[in-house]
Amino acid sequence: MSNVVKLNEDAVYARLGASVRELREGLQLSQAELAHLANVNRVTLARIETGRTGVTVAVLARLALAMDTTPAALIEDIL
């Protein structure tokens, strides 16, 4: 019998959101600018940055591309 993985998803979403927000602010992009570049609704981006929602792999990839980074860099410290 295998062990069941326990994961605090809220904490993961919060860390991912903080990573996105930190990089966005470092690039001096507004939420509206990044949302436009990544083809994501600004409200959705705000929810991602505050950890209130998760992201699909496609959205993660678009955010990374829009900020000239990799999805791996955005999720580096989430666990």
Description:
- This protein has 79 residues and is an all-alpha fold.
- 62% of the residues lie in helices and 0% in strands.
- The chain is built from 5 helices and no strands.
- It has helices spanning 9-26, 31-38, 42-49, 57-66, 71-75.
- α2 packs across α3 and α2 (31-38) packs across α4 (57-66).
- The two termini are 24 Å apart.
Q: What order do the helices and strands follow? A: HHHHH
Give the N-terminus to C-terminus distance in angstroms.
24 Å
Please report the number of helical segments: 5
What low-confidence regions span 5 or more consecutive residues with pLDDT below 50?
Answer: none
Helical proportion, percent range: 55-70%
Question: Which sheet architecture does the biggest sheet show?
Answer: none
CA radius of gyration: 13 Å
Main attributes?
79 residues, 5 helices, elongated, 0% strand
